[in-house]
Design brief:
10 helices; alpha/beta; two-stranded parallel ribbon; 13 strands; about 300 residues
Length: about 300
């Protein structure tokens, strides 16, 4: 991670933090940052997509699915003050193909975690939401948090549902809840073998001498935010007294064709992409206005 995401304050009390999905791309970076700051960290991950070797050796790994009844017992054992929730089914196209499974993992798994969080006395809950999937096709760019929620995929609908449950748990149970609406996160440890994560996928293909696939005409735009900036947003929520929903993005859209051209130049490749049909459930253009995060969390990308 970049140094600014890992800066330590002169006096920072140690917290007990549980990170779900802590063996994954973003979660493992957050675990590293928490440990660097001196916090006590436990990880919940079923290792279906996460990798055990990514888990910081100073963290305690519990190999569990969020839908497992053992989650409540595990949280009673760890007694976290803070839960950072990143475990999820993260593939938009897979959610379109199988909305029931997406909801089982992303909605019911989250509810299981919320109930366990209340049962163990957790004080603060930070949820990895999605600004890229919740707003639908934006009416204005960049999108603020006031933009209507009109998801085009079951994945986006699940994120919106979980945020609604977060509001309930904050109002009724006093859980201090933050929803971080990520743009398109990229950086080290991103899986180049899946269907999401165009920067990692293009990079690996170009380095291996394979022409990358672009779905649609390539002019679709995404807001690409670096993983250490996302880590910094999570760390800011540890001490903030302003719970709520926050966009985490740069406010600028970059086309897939631009990303391909940049990576081709950096790798010295002369390959051309292979264009295919656009995918159902994906927005055409998105960029996130992070003014609220700057004002209330002191965060900038």
């Amino acid at each position: 991670c970049c140094p600014h995401a890992l800066e330590e304050e002169s006096v920072r009390p140690s917290l007990r933090v549980t990170v779900t999905g802590g063996a994954g791309f973003i979660g493992s970076h957050i675990v590293d940052a928490l440990i660097l700051q001196g916090h006590q960290v436990a990880v919940i991950d079923d290792l279906s997509s996460g990798q055990r070797e990514r888990v910081n050796p100073q963290a305690r790994l519990h190999q569990l699915s969020l839908t497992d009844s053992g989650v409540a017992e595990m949280l009673q054992q760890e007694h976290p003050q803070v839960i950072i929730h990143h475990a999820a089914q993260v593939n938009v196209r897979r959610s379109v193909a199988n909305p029931m499974e997406d909801a089982r993992v992303n909605v019911l798994g989250s509810l299981n975690l919320f109930e366990a969080a209340v049962g163990c006395g957790a004080e603060r809950f930070i949820f990895a939401s999605s600004g890229g999937a919740m707003y639908g096709e934006p009416r204005q760019l960049p999108c603020s948090e006031e933009h209507s929620v009109e998801p085009l995929s079951p994945y986006g609908a699940a994120k919106a549902a979980v945020e609604t449950y977060l509001h309930y748990y904050r109002q009724i149970h006093g859980l201090k809840c933050f929803a971080l609406r990520y743009a398109n996160v990229y950086g080290p440890r991103q899986d180049p073998h899946g269907e999401a994560g165009v920067v990692a996928i293009f990079t690996l293909a170009l380095l291996e001498g394979r022409p990358p696939s672009i779905f649609g005409n390539g002019d679709q735009e995404r807001d690409f935010v670096y993983v250490s900036d996302v880590v910094a947003a999570n760390l800011a929520c540890l001490t903030s007294d302003s719970p709520g929903a926050y966009n985490v993005g740069t406010g600028e859209g970059t086309s897939v064709n631009q990303i391909f051209a940049l990576l081709r130049s950096l790798t010295g490749s002369e390959l051309e992409p292979v264009y295919g049909s656009a995918k159902v459930g994906e927005v055409y253009r998105i960029a996130l206005d992070a003014t609220r995060a700057r004002q209330h969390l002191g965060w900038t990308p």
